[in-house]
């Protein structure tokens, strides 16, 4: 079968109308006969319904059992002179004779249609519609080669035949009736739009809604591959489950498009994530391939929408389709929506009358150079990555929507006020644009804009010993080896080459103008629940553009999709600052037993870790923060407008009053002022000295105070004073206390806190020193509270 099967040459691109979907029995994959299928049936029905009543009776008599006396078993009148096959178009229409005998039982045509004498014209037209559907399905049964499809056609043929004999309405007898899964595909896509894009300005959100409608429309007219075709393509798939859905789809969605006597449902309204998962990968490939092939024929106003925004939309949706941690498939996704908000599902739905292009379900050859991409604008399925459908996914953390159910606490801003403020800033013009050179712009803002314009791309690639080598991927791997070698001069080139080309390692590559300018090499340990980042670099002439931050954000979203929520890496002194900005710290969340023996240990480097939050869309996080800041700014402005009230001056002092409580000043509380907490600052120096001396003595005699008694010796902790700029210990504090340095409690508490902070900064969390610092800190604050120096 050709790769372009089913895609009509010269036809409009995605979302175009005017073409009819493929009819059942029209070959299953070729769309050339599809346009005529539905149209021919409609024309035949119109012609037959406009025929004289005797002609209608003759047609119905063929499918009506004989009513003559004597219990005749003939189940349909057969003419003595059957029309030629195929019928001649120039043949004159003969007069119908109700006395003409049946070729089978010899009873007259009138004996077969006596039950129709008093039937209304409307009911007769309904039965005639079923007759033509029966004839069409009879043709489908004989033309169809696939056994599963043929069986469904034959079952529907018998059902409609029975409906004519009994003059009833065809009702499918099944264990389950539509919908077969909730939430439906349509509801899931609407939830996806709400979940990912509700923060966008109205104009951008409208673009997303158009993409959602386009996608739903494509599914409603998509031709599913037969169960046998799917078994060949995905041998390990749930064959029984797919066959059940395929049968339902034929009966309720596909065949009723042409046989309108059967009740018709939209695919997106009665099926859910299970069916979507089975078709998404193939469908996505073919849609994007079709768009690329016919990009020159697209109207200019649709070109950007289809070639730029649609691929990104499909990539982001794919992550939610194949992830168990996605909240969009929850039944009560919108349960936490504020009152009065229009549910998104009332805005987006697939147009029921639209007629999109017919697309084949046969595999389409896709440029493998794009495989493994995680760029929202460019992502395609990868032969190098595990198939998400076949992965066994574990239940994740509580879903984000559950946070909507939490009880409101005192101080929460009313949701009505939030909605009111949001309405004032949905217009993009209302949000001040931040210059990319501004100190307030996000680090990844420039990179994000370049990605949207298609200047840069992100791809997850790796070497493979099983797949046929791909020239472009191999070139990119060589480019990555060069970038890492130049930017990491202290790392042996042979070592870099070995890891970059190791099949167990993958690399998130940053591509600009077709060449590699950066990347992150990593190795995933799914069984241990973490990934080790091995190399991370951007070529020197492309730095300070936010590429490093955007690279890491893409890597985080890639791992959330694969349900690995921890990063580990050894960072040298030049990389510690970068990793801190990306959310890494020396506080390792992964138990030591999980990673010891798995990751590579580097001398002179610092082990750092990062825990991912699956609820955060990392590549869009700075945009969300920017909008939140704007909301807060608007709320402050509203608050200020409310309190701009001029109060009369205080006259109490003229009456001899020397002082008044601050809280009694009119308007002071409206400004947000609150009384200062009752942390007692001792005014008597001797009393303060005595209290601090007692607390210090307690700390020094505590069982966990031994590591902090004296200054750290350089011989015992090499490099300590390069890491810790402001050292502190209990001996130094005793000397300061004796010299009356601590004139306030804050100075004393600051030095004590520095001891604990320095310890945690230099020592790993699993060390004994780290644990001593935590326990001693807790004890110290207990004593401070007991002394009344801070509130309990």
UniProtKB/TrEMBL annotation:
The keyword Transferase applies. It holds the Pfam family Bromodomain. One of its GO terms (biological process) is positive regulation of transcription by RNA polymerase II. GO terms for cellular component: ATAC complex; centrosome; nucleus. Coiled coil: none annotated. Acetyl-CoA binds at residues 536-538, 543-549, 574-577. It is found in: Cytoplasm, Cytoskeleton, Microtubule organizing center, Centrosome; Nucleus. The active site is at residue 532. Its EC number is 2.3.1.48. Keywords: Acyltransferase, Bromodomain, Cytoplasm, Cytoskeleton, Nucleus, Transcription, Transcription regulation, Transferase. SUPFAM superfamilies: Acyl-CoA N-acyltransferases (Nat) (SSF55729), Bromodomain (SSF47370). It is an enzyme of class 2 (transferase). This is Histone acetyltransferase. It comes from Sander lucioperca.
């Amino acid at each position: 079968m050709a790769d372009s099967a089913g895609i009509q040459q010269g036809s409009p691109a995605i979302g175009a109308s005017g073409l009819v979907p493929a009819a059942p029995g029209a070959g299953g994959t070729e769309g050339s006969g599809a346009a005529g299928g539905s149209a021919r049936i409609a024309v035949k029905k119109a012609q037959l319904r406009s025929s004289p009543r005797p002609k209608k009776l003759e047609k119905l008599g063929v499918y009506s059992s004989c009513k003559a006396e004597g219990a005749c078993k003939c189940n349909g009148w057969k003419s003595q002179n059957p029309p030629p096959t195929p019928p001649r178009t120039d043949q004159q229409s003969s007069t119908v004779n109700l006395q003409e005998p049946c070729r089978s039982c010899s009873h007259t045509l009138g004996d077969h249609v006596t039950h129709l004498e008093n039937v209304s014209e409307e009911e007769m037209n309904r039965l005639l519609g079923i007759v033509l559907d029966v004839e069409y399905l009879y043709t489908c049964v004989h033309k169809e080669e696939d056994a599963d499809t043929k069986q469904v056609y034959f079952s529907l043929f018998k059902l409609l035949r029975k409906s004519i004999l009994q003059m009833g309405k065809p009702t499918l007898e099944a264990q389950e009736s539509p919908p077969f899964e909730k939430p439906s595909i349509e509801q899931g896509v609407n939830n996806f739009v709400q979940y990912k894009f509700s923060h966008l300005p109205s104009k951008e959100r409208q673009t997303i809604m158009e993409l959602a409608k386009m996608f739903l429309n494509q599914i409603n007219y998509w031709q599913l591959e037969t169960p046998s075709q799917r078994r060949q393509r995905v041998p390990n798939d749930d064959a029984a489950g797919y066959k059940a859905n395929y049968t339902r789809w034929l009966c309720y969605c596909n065949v009723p498009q042409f046989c309108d006597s059967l009740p018709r449902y939209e695919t997106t309204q009665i099926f859910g994530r299970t069916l979507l998962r089975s078709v998404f990968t193939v469908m996505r490939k073919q849609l994007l391939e079709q768009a690329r092939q016919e990009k020159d024929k697209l109207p200019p106003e649709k070109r950007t929408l289809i070639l730029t925004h649609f691929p990104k939309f499909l990539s982001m949706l794919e992550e939610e389709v194949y992830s168990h941690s996605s909240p969009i498939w929850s039944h009560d996704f919108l349960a936490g929506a504020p009152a009065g908000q229009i549910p998104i599902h009332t805005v987006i739905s697939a147009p029921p009358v639209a007629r999109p292009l017919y697309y084949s379900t046969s595999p389409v050859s896709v440029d493998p150079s794009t495989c493994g991409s995680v760029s929202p604008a460019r992502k395609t399925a990868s032969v190098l990555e595990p198939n998400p459908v076949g992965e066994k996914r574990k239940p994740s953390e509580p879903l984000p929507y559950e946070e909507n159910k939490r009880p409101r606490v005192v101080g929460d801003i009313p949701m009505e006020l939030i909605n009111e403020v949001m309405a004032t800033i949905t217009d993009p013009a209302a949000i001040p644009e931040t210059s990319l050179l501004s100190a307030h712009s996000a680090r990844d803002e420039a990179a994000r804009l370049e990605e949207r314009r298609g200047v840069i791309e992100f791809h997850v690639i790796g070497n493979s010993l099983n797949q046929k080598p791909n020239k472009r991927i191999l070139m990119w791997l060589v480019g990555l080896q060069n970038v890492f070698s130049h930017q990491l001069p202290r790392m042996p080139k042979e070592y870099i080459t070995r890891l970059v080309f190791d099949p167990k390692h993958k690399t998130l590559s940053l591509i600009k103008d077709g060449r590699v300018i950066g990347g992150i090499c990593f190795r995933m340990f799914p069984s241990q629940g973490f990934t080790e980042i091995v190399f991370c670099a951007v070529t020197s002439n492309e730095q300070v553009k936010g590429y490093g931050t955007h690279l890491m954000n893409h890597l985080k979203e890639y791992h959330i999709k694969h349900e690995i929520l921890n990063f580990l890496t050894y960072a040298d002194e030049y990389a510690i600052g970068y990793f801190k900005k990306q959310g890494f710290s020396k506080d390792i969340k992964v138990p030591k037993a999980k990673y010891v023996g798995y990751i590579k240990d580097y001398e002179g480097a610092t082990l750092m870790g990062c825990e991912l939050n699956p609820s955060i869309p990392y590549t869009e996080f700075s945009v969300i923060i920017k909008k939140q800041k704007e909301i807060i700014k608007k709320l402050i402005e509203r608050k200020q407008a409310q309190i701009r009230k001029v109060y009369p001056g205080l006259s109490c002092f003229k009456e001899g009053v020397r002082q008044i409580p601050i809280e009694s000043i009119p308007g002071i509380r409206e400004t947000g002022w609150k009384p200062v907490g009752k942390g007692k600052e001792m005014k008597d120096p001797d009393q303060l000295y005595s209290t601090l001396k007692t607390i210090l003595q307690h700390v020094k005699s505590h069982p966990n105070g031994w590591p902090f008694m004296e200054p750290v010796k350089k011989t015992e902790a090499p490099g300590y004073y390069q890491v810790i700029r402001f050292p502190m210990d209990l001996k130094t504090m005793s000397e300061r206390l004796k010299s009356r340095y601590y004139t306030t409690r804050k100075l004393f508490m600051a030095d004590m806190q520095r001891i604990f902070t320095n310890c945690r900064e230099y020592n790993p969390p699993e060390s004994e020193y780290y644990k001593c610092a935590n326990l001693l800190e807790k004890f110290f604050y207990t004593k401070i509270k007991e002394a009344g120096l801070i509130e309990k």
